[in-house]
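Task 17 of the worksheet. Students: predict the tertiary structure of the chain below and write it out as C-alpha coordinates. Keep your answer in the requested format; marks are given for formatting as well as content.
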Amino acid sequence: MNVRDDRREAALERMADHLLVQGLAGASLRPLAAAAGTSDRMLLYYFKDKDELLTATLGRIMERLARLLDGVGGGAGPMPFTALLLEIRAVFRSPALQPYMRLWIELAASAARDEAPHRAVAGQIADGFLAWTASRLQVEQEAGRIPLAALLLATVDGLALLDAVGRSAIADDAAAALPLRPASTARRPKRPR
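Model answer:
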Protein backbone atom coordinates (compact mmCIF):
# COMPACT_ATOMS: atom_id res chain seq x y z
CA MET A 1 0.00 0.00 0.00
CA ASN A 2 1.08 3.53 -0.66
CA VAL A 3 0.34 6.67 1.36
CA ARG A 4 -2.79 7.44 -0.69
CA ASP A 5 -4.16 3.94 -0.08
CA ASP A 6 -3.37 4.15 3.64
CA ARG A 7 -5.20 7.46 3.93
CA ARG A 8 -8.14 6.15 1.94
CA GLU A 9 -8.39 3.14 4.28
CA ALA A 10 -8.19 5.35 7.37
CA ALA A 11 -10.90 7.62 5.92
CA LEU A 12 -13.13 4.60 5.24
CA GLU A 13 -12.81 3.42 8.84
CA ARG A 14 -13.68 6.85 10.24
CA MET A 15 -16.58 7.37 7.82
CA ALA A 16 -17.94 3.92 8.69
CA ASP A 17 -17.85 4.89 12.39
CA HIS A 18 -19.63 8.14 11.50
CA LEU A 19 -22.45 6.45 9.53
CA LEU A 20 -23.04 3.90 12.28
CA VAL A 21 -23.70 6.80 14.65
CA GLN A 22 -25.35 9.33 12.35
CA GLY A 23 -27.07 7.08 9.81
CA LEU A 24 -27.69 8.19 6.25
CA ALA A 25 -28.53 11.69 7.50
CA GLY A 26 -24.77 12.07 8.00
CA ALA A 27 -23.93 10.83 4.52
CA SER A 28 -23.41 14.15 2.79
CA LEU A 29 -19.90 15.04 1.67
CA ARG A 30 -18.97 17.66 4.28
CA PRO A 31 -19.95 15.64 7.38
CA LEU A 32 -18.20 12.58 5.93
CA ALA A 33 -15.07 14.64 5.26
CA ALA A 34 -15.14 16.05 8.78
CA ALA A 35 -15.52 12.53 10.18
CA ALA A 36 -12.58 11.40 8.05
CA GLY A 37 -10.48 14.31 9.29
CA THR A 38 -10.03 15.80 5.85
CA SER A 39 -11.69 18.13 3.35
CA ASP A 40 -14.42 17.23 0.91
CA ARG A 41 -11.94 17.89 -1.93
CA MET A 42 -9.48 15.39 -0.51
CA LEU A 43 -12.24 12.79 -0.21
CA LEU A 44 -12.88 13.21 -3.91
CA TYR A 45 -9.16 12.62 -4.46
CA TYR A 46 -9.51 9.23 -2.76
CA PHE A 47 -12.85 8.36 -4.41
CA LYS A 48 -14.14 8.99 -7.93
CA ASP A 49 -17.37 10.59 -6.71
CA LYS A 50 -19.80 10.63 -3.79
CA ASP A 51 -21.52 7.43 -4.94
CA GLU A 52 -18.24 5.51 -4.92
CA LEU A 53 -17.37 6.99 -1.52
CA LEU A 54 -20.74 6.01 -0.04
CA THR A 55 -20.67 2.56 -1.64
CA ALA A 56 -17.18 1.91 -0.25
CA THR A 57 -18.12 3.17 3.21
CA LEU A 58 -21.29 1.06 3.38
CA GLY A 59 -19.25 -1.88 2.09
CA ARG A 60 -16.79 -1.38 4.94
CA ILE A 61 -19.66 -1.39 7.43
CA MET A 62 -20.94 -4.65 5.99
CA GLU A 63 -17.44 -6.18 6.22
CA ARG A 64 -17.47 -5.31 9.91
CA LEU A 65 -20.93 -6.84 10.33
CA ALA A 66 -19.81 -10.03 8.58
CA ARG A 67 -16.92 -10.36 11.05
CA LEU A 68 -19.32 -9.87 13.96
CA LEU A 69 -21.65 -12.52 12.56
CA ASP A 70 -18.90 -15.10 12.18
CA GLY A 71 -19.50 -16.17 15.77
CA VAL A 72 -23.19 -17.00 15.26
CA GLY A 73 -23.81 -20.60 16.17
CA GLY A 74 -20.51 -20.90 18.01
CA GLY A 75 -18.98 -22.95 15.20
CA ALA A 76 -21.57 -25.69 15.71
CA GLY A 77 -22.02 -26.11 11.97
CA PRO A 78 -25.26 -25.76 10.03
CA MET A 79 -28.34 -25.17 12.15
CA PRO A 80 -32.05 -25.88 11.64
CA PHE A 81 -34.16 -22.94 10.43
CA THR A 82 -35.74 -21.93 13.75
CA ALA A 83 -32.56 -22.37 15.78
CA LEU A 84 -30.58 -20.24 13.30
CA LEU A 85 -33.33 -17.61 13.20
CA LEU A 86 -33.43 -17.32 16.98
CA GLU A 87 -29.63 -17.16 17.16
CA ILE A 88 -29.50 -14.39 14.53
CA ARG A 89 -32.33 -12.53 16.25
CA ALA A 90 -30.51 -12.60 19.59
CA VAL A 91 -27.30 -11.34 17.99
CA PHE A 92 -29.08 -8.59 16.06
CA ARG A 93 -30.82 -7.39 19.22
CA SER A 94 -27.52 -7.02 21.07
CA PRO A 95 -26.40 -3.43 21.75
CA ALA A 96 -23.29 -3.94 19.58
CA LEU A 97 -25.42 -4.71 16.51
CA GLN A 98 -28.14 -2.09 16.98
CA PRO A 99 -26.31 0.61 14.95
CA TYR A 100 -25.99 -1.85 12.06
CA MET A 101 -29.67 -2.74 12.18
CA ARG A 102 -30.77 0.91 12.30
CA LEU A 103 -28.56 1.71 9.33
CA TRP A 104 -29.84 -1.36 7.44
CA ILE A 105 -33.48 -0.32 7.92
CA GLU A 106 -32.67 3.24 6.87
CA LEU A 107 -30.77 1.98 3.81
CA ALA A 108 -33.63 -0.35 2.85
CA ALA A 109 -36.12 2.53 3.06
CA SER A 110 -33.86 4.67 0.89
CA ALA A 111 -33.48 1.80 -1.59
CA ALA A 112 -37.27 1.50 -1.74
CA ARG A 113 -37.32 5.11 -2.94
CA ASP A 114 -34.79 4.04 -5.62
CA GLU A 115 -32.13 6.45 -4.37
CA ALA A 116 -28.69 5.89 -5.85
CA PRO A 117 -26.46 4.24 -4.82
CA HIS A 118 -28.58 2.93 -1.94
CA ARG A 119 -30.62 0.47 -4.00
CA ALA A 120 -27.55 -1.19 -5.51
CA VAL A 121 -25.70 -1.30 -2.18
CA ALA A 122 -28.74 -2.63 -0.31
CA GLY A 123 -29.14 -5.33 -2.96
CA GLN A 124 -25.49 -6.35 -2.55
CA ILE A 125 -25.89 -6.48 1.22
CA ALA A 126 -29.05 -8.58 0.93
CA ASP A 127 -27.26 -10.95 -1.48
CA GLY A 128 -24.34 -11.27 0.93
CA PHE A 129 -26.57 -11.96 3.91
CA LEU A 130 -28.58 -14.48 1.88
CA ALA A 131 -25.37 -16.34 0.99
CA TRP A 132 -24.19 -16.18 4.60
CA THR A 133 -27.54 -17.50 5.85
CA ALA A 134 -27.64 -20.27 3.25
CA SER A 135 -24.17 -21.43 4.27
CA ARG A 136 -25.26 -21.81 7.90
CA LEU A 137 -28.65 -23.36 7.29
CA GLN A 138 -29.26 -27.06 7.79
CA VAL A 139 -31.52 -28.41 5.06
CA GLU A 140 -32.80 -31.85 4.16
CA GLN A 141 -32.84 -31.17 0.45
CA GLU A 142 -30.20 -29.01 -1.20
CA ALA A 143 -32.73 -27.59 -3.68
CA GLY A 144 -34.55 -25.92 -0.78
CA ARG A 145 -31.49 -24.14 0.64
CA ILE A 146 -31.83 -20.76 -1.12
CA PRO A 147 -35.64 -20.44 -0.80
CA LEU A 148 -35.41 -21.34 2.89
CA ALA A 149 -32.53 -18.91 3.42
CA ALA A 150 -34.63 -16.20 1.71
CA LEU A 151 -37.51 -16.98 4.05
CA LEU A 152 -35.15 -16.70 7.02
CA LEU A 153 -33.81 -13.37 5.72
CA ALA A 154 -37.35 -12.03 5.27
CA THR A 155 -38.30 -13.18 8.76
CA VAL A 156 -35.22 -11.62 10.38
CA ASP A 157 -35.87 -8.34 8.58
CA GLY A 158 -39.55 -8.38 9.50
CA LEU A 159 -38.75 -8.95 13.16
CA ALA A 160 -36.12 -6.20 13.04
CA LEU A 161 -38.66 -3.82 11.53
CA LEU A 162 -41.11 -4.55 14.34
CA ASP A 163 -38.32 -3.89 16.85
CA ALA A 164 -37.45 -0.63 15.08
CA VAL A 165 -41.01 0.70 15.32
CA GLY A 166 -41.27 -0.15 19.01
CA ARG A 167 -43.18 -3.39 18.65
CA SER A 168 -40.63 -5.77 20.12
CA ALA A 169 -43.31 -7.61 22.11
CA ILE A 170 -45.12 -8.44 18.88
CA ALA A 171 -41.83 -9.53 17.33
CA ASP A 172 -41.17 -11.74 20.37
CA ASP A 173 -44.62 -13.30 20.03
CA ALA A 174 -44.01 -13.93 16.33
CA ALA A 175 -40.64 -15.54 17.02
CA ALA A 176 -42.18 -17.71 19.76
CA ALA A 177 -44.87 -18.88 17.32
CA LEU A 178 -42.32 -20.30 14.90
CA PRO A 179 -42.54 -24.05 14.42
CA LEU A 180 -39.49 -26.11 15.29
CA ARG A 181 -39.13 -26.91 11.59
CA PRO A 182 -40.72 -24.87 8.81
CA ALA A 183 -43.14 -26.84 6.67
CA SER A 184 -40.89 -26.58 3.61
CA THR A 185 -38.19 -28.69 5.27
CA ALA A 186 -40.45 -31.26 6.89
CA ARG A 187 -41.04 -34.48 5.05
CA ARG A 188 -44.39 -34.30 3.35
CA PRO A 189 -46.62 -37.36 3.40
CA LYS A 190 -47.18 -38.93 0.04
CA ARG A 191 -50.60 -38.31 -1.44
CA PRO A 192 -52.71 -41.36 -2.16
CA ARG A 193 -53.21 -41.95 -5.86
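Marker's comment: The chain has two domains: 1-62, 70-186. Residues 183-193 have pLDDT under 50 and may be disordered.
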